[in-house]
Structures are given as structure tokens and as C-alpha cells.
ADP-ribosylation factor-like protein (Gaopeijia maritima), 192 residues
Amino acid sequence: MSMINYASREINCKVVYYGTGLGGKTTNLEYIYSRVNPDTKGKMISLATETERTLFFDFLPIDLGSIRGFKTRFHLYTVPGQVYYNASRKLILKGVDGLVFVADSQRERAEANIEAMHNLYENLEAYGYDLEKIPFVIQYNKRDLENAMPADELRAQLNPMGVPDFEAIAIEGKGVFETLTTVSKSVVKSLS
């Protein structure tokens, strides 16, 4: 949950990008990082493995102005996409204020998307978090590929709760800021 530092008059909120390996989580953060004013962002930390670009997390504080006289800072994280890093995935969820599930639209990744979504539910449950109470957005990435599933089919598989969702091509920035803006506004609203 958000951390309030009364001495510095700062509210720190944590948003986690969750999903399958190579689905576009890191690409989202890289695009955001490249477009945000240099004066409002911190250093991005990215760890790479042989099989994917993010091992633990990317950390990107973005300064978003003030709420009731407190400066608001968002910290964006990605989880590793591979299931065998589940302990890291779970640890990164601790204290989460908002979630973005990045689904890979490719038909052959449908099962991996469903598995990652179930893994998200399990890890949240382990902390006693209720997904219906946490700001949550789904992004259907890689919409430009020929083997992309129809959005309605993805929605039926991954979004039974009807949370806000967006089609995206993260590598081009399409849908990236719409996704971030929606989850950020939901987090700020939940603080009120």
C-alpha cells in the first residue's frame, strides 16, 4: 500500500506490470521512460537474463504532482515473466497499489496468458489482497501481429471482471500511456 512520508510530504505509490515472459511489460516501461520529462523521473534499473529482458524488476519513479499538499511519486515495476521466478513475482507484489496485466495477443500465447493471470490471483491471495479492491487494468499488447487474437476473445479469456482494458502496440507506444493514465488515476482515487 502507498507509503506516506510526512517529513518530505511525499506519497509513494507502487504500480506493478504483470504478465507472461516477453509479453511487453519491459517495453511499456522503456517507452514511458523515454517519453517522460527527465526532471520528473528517476533512474530505470533493468536486469537481463539469457531468456528474457527482465529478471527481477524495472524501477521507475515518476513524479505526478501533489495531492493535498503531498508530492505524489509513482514507482513502476515489472515482474519476471517466467513462472520459475515466482518467488520474485510474489515479492514484487508486496505493497502494490495498482496493477497492469500485460497480455501477449499472439494466439499461441493464450495459455501462457491464462496461466500468468491465475498466478497473479494466487500471489495476491497469499498476501490477502482482493483484486476487486486494487486498481487493475489489462493491456492486450502486440495488436499489430498477424496472429493476434481478436480483442473480444482475449477479453472473454482474461477479463471476466470487466476492468478497464486497452489494445496496445507497446513498441510503438500505442496504448501505453492510456494504460498508465487509467491505472494511475484509479490509484489516486483510491487514496482519497
The chain is about 30% helix and 25% strand. Strands lie at 3-5, 10-19, 60-67, 70-78, 98-104, 136-141, 165-167.
